[in-house]
Amino acid sequence: TQSTGGIREVEMPDGTVKKFIWSPKYDPRYPAFNQGPKCTQYFIDFQKCIWKKGEGYKPCDWFRHHYEHVCPAPWIEKWQDQLDRGVFPSKQLLKWQNKYPKAPAVEDDE
Description:
Elements: E1 2-4, E2 7-11, E3 17-21, H1 36-53, H2 61-70, H3 73-85, H4 91-99
Helix pairs in contact: 1-2, 1-4
């Protein structure tokens, strides 16, 4: 499955690839027009999910699809760079990482 903007390419069981227009559903936690907090939270939730369940754990993609759709690309690039350097400014994520051991990557069944 690949996501580009609002279009998702999904591989069907027969091997064909179909394109779907996709957007996140309404989230009552973020009723305002300012999507910044929503964007940040989805990014952090994705990082927490892959930390606890392992990279490649498919249900974590739900958060990734949301932050990719809501967040501006420069924000994502900046945050990813900060994560890589170990300086991402999130007390919430740091507490999570201290609470749970990092899970190994999930092996793909294919």
